[in-house]
Amino acid sequence: MHGIRQGRRPQVQVFGTGNRRDRGVGAVQRFVGKFVNKLDAKGRVSVPAQFRQVLSAQQNGGFYCIRSIGHPALNGFGEALFAEADERLKSFNPIFSRDYAAQATALFAQARYLELDDDGRVRLPDELVTHAGIEDRILFAGLDRMFEIWNPTTFEPVERARIEQMQRAYEAGTL
Asked: What is the DSSP letter of 90?
């Protein structure tokens, strides 16, 4: 695929301190970039090194993974975003709120924690592979505090539509 880095080990970008490698207080790490890796015969895929660095900085030995709502894709994220969602749910009464049950089900009941092995790989459960229509290649797309996992062919028109949406918003002056 044109424009997608394969086989390179990019440096992690840390924002907030001005130093690329500083992981001190106030540093905010983000999932950025697109990477394509192969799914092996055992259903394992190597998580991009840059994403592993972000997860490691959050004290994660893996990541949470849920089905994307509205797309044949998966959402991956670390403890930081999971804790943020938990905090947001605290504004709902868990007994009397339908919104609580819907959001908690979509996140907590659907989440799978995928542990990284010593080689930086995770085993994607079969039901998640099926949901995302993944065959032999997997695209990781960084989206700031989370990342998406796609079949690369499925992602291409979605990416185009997202960029066109931003172009229209720019032209309309709504950005």
From this structure: T
Per-residue pLDDT of the chain (175 residues; tens, 9 = 90+): 444 444 443 333 333 333 344 444 445 589 999 999 999 999 999 999 999 999 999 888 999 999 999 999 999 999 989 999 999 999 999 999 989 999 999 999 999 999 999 999 999 999 999 999 999 999 999 999 999 999 999 999 999 999 999 999 999 999 8
Contacts of 147 (CB under 8 A, 6+ apart): 31, 51, 75, 76, 77, 140, 141
> Helix count (H) and strand count (E) of the chain?
5, 10
**Which of 50, 3, 8 is closest to 31 using CA atoms?**
50
Cut 0.90: pTM above it: no
CA distance 92 to 96: 8
SS3 138: strand
- Minimal CA–CA distance to 64: which of 4, 93, 118, 106? 106
Which domains are assigned to the chain? 14-79+111-172 (3.40.1550.20)
- 101 neighbors 92 (Cβ within 8 angstroms): no
What's the rounded Cα separation, in Å, for the pair 82 and 149? Answer: 17
